[in-house]
Amino acid sequence: MGQAIPEESEAAAKKNGDSAAGDVEDFKLVGYSKFLRANPRTDRFPVLGFHHIEFWCGDAINTAGRFSFALGMPVAARSDLSTGNLFHSSILLRSSSLQFLFTAPYSDYPSSQTQSPKSLIPSFDSAAARRFSADHGLGVRAIAVRVADAAAAFHVSVSHGARPAFPPAELGLGFALSEVELYGDVVLRYVSYPSSGCVLPSFLPGFEDVADRPDPTDLSYGIQRLDHAVGNVADLTTAVKYVAGFTGFHEFAEFTAEDVGTEESGLNSVVLANNEETVLIPMNEPVHGTKRRSQIQTYLDHNGGAGVQHLALSTGDVLRTLREMRARSPMGGFEFMPSPPPTYYANLRRRAGDVLTEQQMKECEELGVLVDRDDQGVLLQIFTKPVGDRPTIFIEIIQRIGCMVKDEEGREYQKGGCGGFGKGNFSELFKSIEEYEKSLEAKLQTA
């Protein structure tokens, strides 16, 4: 939150966008083996990283409470009746730099009721929130990224084809917010604020920090940040051209059904990234004509269209995080997909024996952690079952090992996407989801 913002006016941002080298008109999937990774640094405006994820739900307190318990994310701030907000309840959870916001509408008040604009998110719409919950169940409404200038990012995006969702609004104290459509009913939210110069709220103006709460590090399970946010769409080519076109994001990775499918189903996937590769936005589409209906199509059917499929949360110790989460699974926490068979771990020493200790490899097998690597690093990952009523959104917990480099000032950091996206694990994930779907189908057939 203290990262310096490069100074750039709206005019300069537009100029930068107009000279972007990325041409998405000729986009065509080539598959993992033929894809050559490059970073042309074609962002149309400065994108500094993920800021928060907003869920729309029917009951913010109880939904936030379950996520807090399941993920070790303490309540950090709120805007609701207790703070003078008559329109919605919004509860913010935070673990290190990861921020989840849960928002639910109140009953409509007469038009004579007024409130200060700074006490709510200006883009919130009660009727839209109710429709969202009815259409999608629990789901992500907004993927918020921090930008240098929310107004400039909005106007540059719209000038390059983005569909506007909410025009730039000043929130006070130098904060600004704007939104454009991403896919389905999900918006890409731009948030900007000064790095210094005054005492800034820990989240957004109008939100009150939770006072007298325990030290958040005492409650944390070790989750540190949002690594990537994955969307499912009906047509990947159209979605990639649209998002890359207005952001300037470059293609970071891609997979086709031949790369990651099983004998029964598959998907195509593209990962888009900002210049610094700190904002990773993968998108998947279903593959048709397979033995089973694609899991992506199942998502689209139950979600009522495109939406966020899963959120990948990064931890510095996936084994510790997973032990904490699994301990709470029987008490209302999140459940996990079935572990792979023992044969999966037979070659684990060959895949990662130079990185993981014998004890770590043993724990990976005991806890059901998947292990993969690319030419740069190692990826440890595990997936929850869907976290809502519908077989839609779920959570991925990951740890990336390796790829440590230094910036111009000598500070060490990890390259984005280190270890890849689990290409070697896709088939195991697919099998787990297929078995989960088959269990649901069996119950429906006997109901």
Automatic annotation (TrEMBL):
Main location: cytoplasm
Keyword line: Cytoplasm, Dioxygenase, Iron, Metal-binding, Oxidoreductase, Phenylalanine catabolism, Pyruvate, Repeat, Tyrosine catabolism
Location within or outside the cell: Cytoplasm
Residue span, VOC domain: 49-205, 225-385
GO molecular function, one term: metal ion binding
InterPro entries: 4OHPhenylPyrv_dOase, 4OHPhenylPyrv_dOase_C, 4OHPhenylPyrv_dOase_N, Glyas_Bleomycin-R_OHBP_Dase, Glyas_Fos-R_dOase_dom, VOC_core
Domain of life of the source: Eukaryota
Gene Ontology BP, a term: L-phenylalanine catabolic process
Cofactor requirement: Fe cation
Pathway: Amino-acid degradation; L-phenylalanine degradation; acetoacetate and fumarate from L-phenylalanine: step 3/6; Cofactor biosynthesis; prenylquinone biosynthesis
Coiled coil segments of this chain: none
SUPFAM superfamilies linked to this entry: Glyoxalase/Bleomycin resistance protein/Dihydroxybiphenyl dioxygenase
GO cellular component, one term: cytoplasm
Record note on cofactor: Binds 1 Fe cation per subunit.
Residues annotated to bind Fe cation: H228, H310, E396
NCBIfam families: 4HPPD
Record family assignment: Belongs to the 4HPPD family.
Protein's name in the database: 4-hydroxyphenylpyruvate dioxygenase
Organism: Apostasia shenzhenica
Gene that specifies this protein: HPD
